[in-house]
Amino acid sequence: MRVVAGKYGGRPLKTLEGRTTRPTTDKVKGAIFNMIGPYFDSGRVLDLYAGSGSLAIEAVSRGMEAAVLVEKDRRAQAVISQNIKMTKEEQCFQLLKMDSGRALDLLSDPFDLVLLDPPYAKEQIAADLEKMAERQLLSEEVLVVCETDKSVRLPEEIAGLGIWKQKNYGISKVTVYVR
């Protein structure tokens, strides 16, 4: 796995061995950013189920200013820390070592890009977005990217956001919500 494009493009990323996380393939990651960008002029990104951190690192590589990565698994946290170190711009990243619910209770500033790839997709994505809207964590121009199994059917609208784009990539489905 590697950073696909941007200022860190081509740099290798570590992944977590085992079944506790499902790393997004480089092909799907490239497709996601081609759908929503592919580059950004600034902004803040939240990766609520960070895994290896590759999606948030890709977003910063492509122009986001800062990223908050949330991960509760200790082994995944170690991988994220190594991947952040690889960027040589650790000041752009904040790793919150906790579960998503606790993180959402602590966060206070809005995000321009939200990345959601939770283990139990449909119910979790809806609950997370409702809570983010309630806590005013979504900017006016927010893009919310949800990665799920292709069999998962997400609601057309959640928390004042509607589906803008949706595409299947092998066993994965990418759904993008906007206001």
UniProtKB/TrEMBL annotation:
<dbReference type="InterPro" id="IPR002052">
    <property type="entry name" value="DNA_methylase_N6_adenine_CS"/>
</dbReference>
<dbReference type="InterPro" id="IPR004398">
    <property type="entry name" value="RNA_MeTrfase_RsmD"/>
</dbReference>
<keyword id="KW-0808">Transferase</keyword>
<keyword id="KW-0489">Methyltransferase</keyword>
<dbReference type="InterPro" id="IPR029063">
    <property type="entry name" value="SAM-dependent_MTases_sf"/>
</dbReference>
<protein>
    <submittedName>
        <fullName>16S rRNA (Guanine(966)-N(2))-methyltransferase RsmD</fullName>
    </submittedName>
</protein>
<dbReference type="Pfam" id="PF03602">
    <property type="entry name" value="Cons_hypoth95"/>
</dbReference>
